[in-house]
Amino acid sequence: MKNSKKVILHYDMDAFYASIEIRDNPSLAGKPVIVGTSVITTCNYEARKYGLHSAMSVTKARMLCPYGIYLKVDKEKYSRVSKQIKNLVLRLTNKVEFIALDEGFVDITDIIKNYPSYEVFALKFQRGILKNTGLTCSIGIGYNKLSAKLASDAKKPGGTTFIRDLDEFADFMWDKGIKLIPGVGKKTQEILGRKNLVRVSDVLKMSLQELRSILGYNRGEMIYEYSRGIDNRKVSVESKTHSISNERTYSAPLEDREFIWSEFLSLLEKTHKRLKYQKFHTKTLTLKVRYLDRKTITRSKSINISTQNIEILKRLLAELLEEINLEDKIKLLGINLGNLSENKEYQLSFKDVEGIKKERKIQELKDKINNLKNLKD
Q1: What integer pLDDT is reported at residue 19 of this predicted model?
Q2: For residues 364, 367, 373 and 377, what is the CA-based torsion angle, rounded to 10 degrees?
Q3: Which residue positions hold the site described Substrate discrimination (predicted)?
């Protein structure tokens, strides 16, 4: 029987921008290095000892660390190094989701079987990055994206942490503060704090219904699941094909609205067939219109969840056509399906979405009634 357990790695480059600057100018080593013009984009660990952090204003940073080395952002250089790192990771597998210039998720389920331990693989991964770029990274390996991300944050810089299953997740999180739970920001922390919920162990004692009543349906459910290590998101594989499109040029200009609609529908169906054939899912539909005077416009709409559902795409098409001038004569029509992925998870129809909304409204109403009853009691 095939083992369906996933093994996910999350890599996070250590103080990425600052580390590149120190690599390129070794005289900066050991000094507090801050990258940013008006706001800090990143700073090295020497600078963090002074209380500096990303998103802090440089003005405040200079007050706390007046003798720091303050550098401008060099986006082109950082992008080049990021591309180099991505190419190294893609040598291992294409099951990669790059979520920023300096971090990404890698599905190593099939690869890890060839190594004696997580430790051996993580060390080889780090050494490969260091050898080729001169930079260090922190590694987390878990059973899903949530555990991998939390693990990579645990020992920085240059550390490795492993969370193999739900039991290890519970041990890892038990005595931590609630701000470690993804989705718990300052406001949520204050709300939970008023209920004396300050540690993950406190949250774990709460039922799903109790957390929903405190935080609302969606956020309550998310905090309930994340505090318990539940995360079913897949690594969204980056596709080499960025979009699929079709266009038609007309010898006689189009003027009839119904005919234009039917032509767009035909183009959509043709493009959709290619989408399904190549086993992709899409989040973005773009329409292209070129008028007789050569003026060309594009209009796009995106959805949060990638899909292959033709009915959802038809609905997007109808919405986009409301935004386009169809009065002037048209020479070209085009459709593009972009933001492609191989992720098949959570593909919902409009009927599904409406059903979920209805169920949640009913549950929210029930929660309000229960809260009122509790107040009366």
Answers
A1: 96
A2: -150
A3: 17
Question: Percentages helix, strand, coil for the chain, rounded to the nearest 5?
Answer: 45, 20, 30
Contact assessment for residue 28 and residue 21, using Cβ atoms and an 8 Å cutoff: yes
Q: Is 100 exposed, middle or buried (0-12, 13-18, 19+ CB in 10 A)?
A: exposed
Instruction: Give CA–CA dist 371/377, Å, rounded.
Output: 10
DSSP letter assigned to residue 100: E
Contact 111, 93 (CB under 8 A): yes
The per-residue pLDDT for 377 is 54
103 is an active site residue: yes
Q: 299 near 323, Cβ under 8 Å?
A: yes
**Mean pLDDT for back-to-back runs of 10 residues, the chain (377 residues):** 74 95 96 92 94 91 96 92 92 87 93 94 96 96 96 93 96 94 88 94 94 90 93 75 83 89 93 86 92 88 86 90 88 91 52 49 60 56
What strand order describes the sheet that includes 103-107?
Answer: 96-100, 103-107, 8-13, 137-142, 160-163
Which contiguous run of DSSP H or E holds residue 361? helix 350-376
Q: Is 165 annotated among the ligand-binding residues?
A: no
Q: Cα dihedral sign for 81, 85, 91, 97?
A: negative
Phi and psi at residue 323, in whole multiples of 5°?
Answer: -95, -5
Residues 201 and 172: beta-carbon distance below 8 Å: no
Please check if 24 is assigned to a binding site: no
Are the CB atoms for 287 and 314 separated by under 8 Å? no
Closest alpha carbon to 265 in 334, 321, 314, 333: 314
102 contacts: CB under 8 Å, gap ≥ 6: 12, 13, 16, 82, 85
What's at 104, amino acid-wise?
Answer: G
3 state SS of 43: strand
| Total residue length of the chain | 377
Token pair for 85: 């790192």
Range list of H helices, 175-216: 186-193, 200-204, 208-215
| Choice among 76, 97, 103, 238 that is catalytic | 103
Rounded Cα gap, residues 105 and 148, in angstroms: 8
Helix (H) or strand (E) holding 333: strand 330-338
User: What letter does residue 106 receive in the DSSP assignment?
Assistant: E
Q: Which two tokens stand for residue 264?
A: 């767009």
